[in-house]
Every structure is written in structure tokens, then in C-alpha cells.
Design brief:
The complex is a heterodimer of chains A (about 325) and B (about 425). Chain A has about 325 residues and is of the alpha/beta class. Chain A has eleven helices and eight strands. In chain A, the strands form two sheets. In chain A, strands 2-1-3-4 form a four-stranded parallel sheet, with helices on both faces. Chain A has a four-stranded parallel sheet with strand order 6-5-7-8, with helices on both faces. In chain A, strand 3, helix 4 and strand 4 form a beta-alpha-beta unit. In chain A, helix 2 packs across helix 5, helix 3 crosses helix 4 and helix 6 runs parallel beside helix 10. Chain B has about 425 residues and is mostly beta strands. Classes of the chains: A alpha/beta (about 325), B mainly beta (about 425). Chains A and B meet through helix 1, helix 3 and helix 4 of A and strand 6, strand 7, strand 9, strand 10 and strand 11 of B.
Amino acid sequence: MIRPKWILALAALSVCSFLAPTAQAEKKLAVVATIPDLADLARQIGGDRVDVLSLAKGTENVHRVALRPSGLVAVGRAELFLQVGLSLEHAFVPGLLEAARNSRLEPGKPGLVTVSDGFEALDVPADVSRSDAADVHPMGNPHMNLSPAAGRHMAGRVLAGLIGVDPEGKDVYTANHRRYLEALTEAEARWAKLGERLKAKKIVVYHREFSYFAAAYGMEVVGEVEPKPGVPPTPSHLAGLVKVIQEHDVCAVLTAGWSNDRNVRFLGERTDAVALELPTMVGGNKRATSWIALMDEWHERLADVLDPVSKDG
Amino acid sequence: MHTFAVSTRFLRRAAMAGAFLGLVPFVPQPEALAQGPAFQSPGLPKRSTVGQTTRFSNEFNPAFGFVIDTVADWLDRDDGAGETDDGFDVKVRLLEFNAAGYLDPNAWGYVVFVSDELEAPEVEEAAIELTGFAERTSVKVGQFFVDFGKQMQQHVEELRTVERPLALRTLLGDELGGAGAQVDWWTPLGEKTPLRASLGVFGTLVSGHEHGEEEEEGIVAEAPELKALDELSFTARVTALTELGESQNLQFGVSGRFIPEFTFEDEESGVESSGLSNTVVGADLTWGWADSTGNRNATVGLEWLTLTGDVAAEIDDPLNPTALIVSDDDASGFFVFADYGFNPRNNVGVQYSAVELPEDGGADASEIEAYWTHSFTEYRRLRLGVSQLDVDGGAEDLRVYLQFTAYLGSHSHGLNW
């Protein structure tokens, strides 16, 4: 027997949901970015025409982003959704898009933009098998946003995405994009100088977030704290890594905030290598307030640690 | 002279047909096909030619995944009447096979086969989800787990604990699946609060099965084979999720499961009692927290539910049964849990559940469980746990278990809220 009071309660809740106030104050293009790096680009290029929200916080592990209710609301309303792709956001984006049921963000629609499209990915596996790793990314290393060469590409994809859903703003977006590229060109000149000091330097990394950056300057990754991506280190692996660090005279073990754990501390205690924690997304620390600032931070701190003599000289 | 008499039955059928036809405009319409139908002649498939996709092509195959769930446990059982037993057991509790794929841009489907303890597999779910409706609305049709509370949508190996909480499996069943249709819709309430509602209509929701439990003869609940519209079962759920600051969220939900017509039958004697109904309503509250990296997290939850109506039956005379005595009563239960993930690979938790047993005249039962779950990787998980089940009158079970769960093939990270 259905009790009338329950039916009334359900009906009242449904009515309340229709009457609830929604943000209508200023009609801006609703943009949701999966990570703060893309949110920064959307703000720089979108300017005053856009309202941008990032799903991930800069301090989070991008492979384990916890969904916040505001993220679901924002994705449900979004007119443009920016993701890196290459399965970087596999842990939270497919399920979120499915739950949000926003028809503007379906595959093939202009509202869904994958910024890695057209960017040459590293570490594309010849065979897709979990015998090689737990975190297998069939389309290649997904951390392309941490390549110093990615800014130009990502900005171009964001520009195309904004114009695709808001053609009326094309002139504004194009002008903002031009200004952004000017700032980026200046930054790239700074990075090129610092990059000279990084060439052929040997490093150990926790996770393959640093692959694109290392490849850009010919740095040599001689070891990884994770034996395979997504697989935690065993004591024997760490013992082997101590030997590798000593043999190669490695100066730094690169880690992110989420991975700076007891394994990294162990390596720091047993070797002369410095555990260097770098922000891996915009907002990862106080200095990384934009994607260009994030890259500035990486270049400067890595040059300081890996080539202190040049700095002193 | 002929008179044209319109029977009530005819009118009812016409009304039904009209109702179904009225739904047609809301069904996602496929775009015009560039080619003709796949089968030009009834029963005679077109022969494929070189360069075409064929029945042997696998480009459009669904994605496949498997789950292997193994449990090793030690059980110390006391029935409260002087009978005790204890010992070890190891079993592959279940093998799950699932396949999923798109039918077209507006629909995707999935099927889940489950083999209990390596017995012949059964279809646990087989459903199509239609997504081409109005904003934020979807419709699921087929056989699937109902939307009730926070746990009933999940398969048993996906749970935080080795078994579903005592209150749920007592009042709703170990699993609650049915064949039917469910509309699911959500809407934002402000900037930080989504509200979701679902309504499901099912042929029946009285039967269910338990993993690793042998079927016992006795009094069973059965739905009529053919039902009037007002004899269909249905479910409803409304839930809202909101943020508390940067790192916490809170969810509240109410759910209902309504069975308006079923029969209790004693399988041994064939004695039955029909025209029965019962209802389960529940409320759930869940709080979650995660640190700034997402590595550490905590969840605390409470779910309460009550069963009212015809809740249980017993035969009038065990030696010469002539009728069933049906209890028109209510029985309530709840569970509360706390789970803490102290790094991405390790969780510890405790859960307490208590319930009034409908078939035992409202005797109380409770279960407490503590566990540690270690994930070697995302695809291999080991759980060590201990649980204590107590029933009024002295019966108790103490169980220490190891549960090893492995995932092969495709996988996803859904959003269950």
C-alpha cells in the first residue's frame, strides 16, 4: 500500500527542484575544463565572454580526481567541455559525462573538445596489454599538458573550441589568443635558455608525468619509482633504484605532491639525489598561477637543481 | 439490424495501445538510413562481399570484461539451540562476465552474466539505456538492478564489505533486480547541489537470489504471471548531493520499493495465500571527505529502511498444512558505516547493521564487520575482514574472511549517486 504522504513528499521535492533559483545574472559562455591548465587557457582566450570551472584541483592526482557536486552541475550546464584526452581523465570524465547527460557534449558535437588531438603523443604502446603496466594508455602518454611545446597547441585547440560554440565571439577570442601567443613566445625564449642547462641531465621520476618535458630537452630518465605505471614499488625495486641513482650520479628524483611519499623519502635518505616536488597542474603550488607560470616554475627549479654551477657562474 | 457493442475489454486494449502510441514522439528517432535494411528478404541475410564488414568482422563488437571473486573464510556457527559448527571454506564465489556496446548514438546496452560458485551462469542484468531524450533524462529498459539507496544498484563484489549489509539483504534481498523500465532525471539546485529522481516500473520485484547460498525449500513469494496495470511493482528514489566547503560533500536520499500484488506459497504443500502487498521505504545520508591530493579520503554513511504490509508467512499446521498465516506487520533496519582510505591502495572500515527479522516475529538481529582492503593495482584487490552476526535467542556466526577480487578486460569508473 502506497502511503499518500510519501507521494506528496516526492512531488514536493520535484516541484522545489523546478522552482530553485539558477544563475541567470550574466549570460556568459559556460566552459568546464577537466584540469586547471585548460581552465587557465580558456580564461586567457575567452576573456570576459566565458565563465570557466575546473573539475580537478591543481594539487590532485589527475588519475584520481574526486567528483564534487558543483562539477556535475557545471557539466550539466556546460556549453563547452575541454579535456586533455589520451585517457588522462579516464578515471572521472567518461562516468561524469554519462551522468550529466548534456547533449551538447556528446562525441562529435562542437561542445566536446579534446586538446591533445593532433599532438604527437609519446610512449604509444605497440601492444595494449596490462602485462606492461597497470595504467595502460592505448593512445600514448597522456601527460602532454606538461610538455613545454604544448602551450601553443592547447591554445589553438581552445581557440577553435570557443569559436566552434560561440562564433559571435570570434574576434574577441582571436585577439586574446594572439596576445596569449605573444606572452608565450616571450616565455618560450626564457625556457629555451634554461633548457640549455638541462640537456643530457639524468633524472629519476616517480610517474611518467615528466616524460614530455624530459624529451623536450634531451634529459635522460634513468629510472622510475613506479616499476610500471600504476604499480607501486617493491622494496627490491627501490633497492635497485638506489644503485641506479648512485651509478648514474642522478641529482634529482622528480615527484608530484600526490606522489611525494615514503618511497621518495627513502631514496632521498639513501642517496645524494634531491627529492624535487613539482606542481603538475596549475594551482599545484602558490607560484603556479597559470600554465606559463607553471612551466616557469619547472624550468627554473630544475635548472637550479640539475645545473647549480651555471647559475652560480 | 446490427448493433455494435464495444466491450470493456476492447476499450481497455485500445486505451493501452493509445498509451503506448502516445509515447512514440518521445522515443529517440534514428536519422534516415543511408542504406536499406540489413535483411532485404525475410529470413535471408545478404551475402557479404570482399571489402565489406561481415559477420566475422569484430569492429562493432561490444567491450568485454570479467570479474573473478574468490572468498576464503573460517566460520564459527552457533544456532543458539546447542548445535555448533566451525571450519574453513574456499570458493570462487562468483564469476561475472559483462559486455557493453552502443546500439546507435542514442542507445547503449549491456549484459551481465554471473556464475555462482562455478554453477551454470545466469543473466543478472541485460538492459538498454536510452539517452536521446530531453536534457538530463535517460530511460533504462530490460532486466537490471533497481535504484534504491546507495548500494542496491551495485553487484556484490563491488561493495565495500564482503556481503551486502544485513538490513538490506533482510528487507530487500541480497540483490534486487527486475525486468521493467526506469526513468532517471536530474536537475541542479543552485550551483553546488544536483538533485536526481528516478521512477521504475517492473513486472515483479519479489524474487532474488543470493550469492553462495543454496536454494531452500519453504515459503516463497511469487508475483502473478499476468498482471493488471495496478499489479506492477515500482521503485522511486530522490536524492540530492551537495558540497560542504572545498573538500567535503553530503548526500541525502529517500527511496521506495512497492509490490502491490504477490502470493506466498509453501513449496512443499502447495498451500498459498494471494492478494498480498508490501512496501519498503528508506532514507540514506552519506558524508564524504578527500584531502587536497585525493590520496586520503573518508566516508561515513547511514541508511535506514522499513518494510510494511504482508511481510512474512507461516503454515498453520506443520503436520497437516491447510493455510498460511500471513503477518501484516512492519520490520525496520539500518546500517551505519565509516570507511577511511589512508592512501590510494589501502582502506579500513567498520560497519554495523541491525534489523527486525520479519519471518521470526520481529526478533532482532545485528551484524558488525571490520575490514582492511588492499589494492595491489586498480585491477587486483585483497580484503581481510571479520564479521559477527547475532540473532535474538542466541544464534551467532563469527566469520573471518579473505576476499580476492580480480578484474580482467574493459572497465569503467561510473558515477553512482
